C-alpha cells in the first residue's frame, strides 16, 4: 500500500548501483588515457620533466575519478527525495544545483517503469512520467524499489470519469 503525504528517500541500494556505474565509467576513462600517457612517456624525444608532469596529472585525475566514483553516490543520495500525495508527485534532487520538480496528476499522460540490467540486478527501477506540455515532458525518478515504482505508476495514472485523456 502506498502511503501518501510522506517525503521519502530513494532506496538505499541506489548507492551501490551508482557506485557500480561510476566505477565502470572511471575504468572506461582511465584505461584508454593510460595508453596515451604511456605512449607519451615512452617517446624518446619527450623531456623527462614533461614525462613526470604527464604521469602526475594522469595519476591525480585517476585518484579524483576514484574518489568521485566511491564518495559521490552517498552524498547525492542525501539530497534526493520524493513526495507523493493526492495531487501528484514532487521530486527533489541535486547537491550543488538543486532541483524541485512537481508533476500534478492532471498533467500525467502516461507512466512507465523501466529497468536496465544493473537496476534489475539491484532490484531497482525507474519511474518515467510522461506529461502534457513540451518543457520537462518526460520526468524520470530512478533509484526506486521495483515494487514501489509499480505502486507509484499505478497511483499516478489518471483515473475517474472527469479525466480527459
**What is the helix content?**
40-55%
Counted beta strands: 7
> What number of domains?
2
Q: How big is the Rg?
A: 22 Å
The end-to-end span amounts to 26 Å
Shape designation: elongated
| Mean pLDDT across residues | 91
Question: In what order do the strands lie side by side in the largest sheet?
Answer: 1-2-3-4
Proportion of beta-strand residues: 25-35%
List low-pLDDT spans: none
SSE series? EHHEEEEHEEH
Query: What structural class is derived from the secondary structure elements?
Result: alpha+beta
Number of helices: 4
Largest sheet: 4 strands, antiparallel
Description:
The chain has 165 residues and is α+β, with helices and mostly antiparallel strands. It is built from 4 helices and 7 strands; from the N terminus they run βααββββαββα. The model has no long low-confidence stretch (mean pLDDT 91). The chain has helices at 13-42, 48-78, 117-122, 146-156, and strands at 7-9, 81-85, 88-93, 99-104, 108-114, 124-131, 138-145. The chain has 2 domains: 13-77; 82-156, no CATH class. The relative contact order is 0.16. The protein is elongated. Strands 1-2-3-4 form a 4-stranded antiparallel sheet. Strands 5-6-7 form a 3-stranded antiparallel sheet.
Topology:
Layout: E1 7-9, H1 13-42, H2 48-78, E2 81-85, E3 88-93, E4 99-104, E5 108-114, H3 117-122, E6 124-131, E7 138-145, H4 146-156
Antiparallel strand pairs: 1-2, 2-3, 3-4, 5-6, 6-7
Features:
165 residues; alpha+beta; 4-stranded antiparallel β-sheet; 3-stranded antiparallel β-sheet; 47% helix; elongated
Amino acid at each position: 500500500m502506498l502511503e501518501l503525504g510522506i517525503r521519502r528517500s530513494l532506496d538505499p541500494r541506489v548507492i551501490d548501483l551508482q557506485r557500480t556505474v561510476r566505477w565502470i565509467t572511471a575504468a572506461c576513462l582511465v584505461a584508454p588515457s593510460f595508453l596515451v600517457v604511456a605512449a607519451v612517456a615512452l617517446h624518446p624525444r619527450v623531456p623527462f620533466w614533461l614525462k613526470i608532469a604527464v604521469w602526475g596529472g594522469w595519476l591525480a585525475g585517476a585518484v579524483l575519478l576514484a574518489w568521485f566514483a566511491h564518495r559521490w553516490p552517498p552524498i547525492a543520495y542525501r539530497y534526493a527525495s520524493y513526495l507523493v500525495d493526492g495531487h501528484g508527485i514532487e521530486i527533489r534532487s541535486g547537491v550543488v544545483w538543486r532541483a524541485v520538480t512537481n508533476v500534478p496528476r492532471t498533467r500525467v499522460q502516461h507512466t512507465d517503469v523501466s529497468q536496465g540490467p544493473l537496476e534489475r540486478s539491484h532490484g531497482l527501477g525507474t519511474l518515467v512520467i510522461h506529461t502534457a506540455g513540451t518543457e520537462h515532458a518526460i520526468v524520470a525518478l530512478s533509484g526506486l524499489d521495483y515494487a514501489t515504482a509499480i505502486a507509484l505508476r499505478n497511483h499516478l495514472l489518471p483515473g475517474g470519469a472527469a479525466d480527459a485523456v
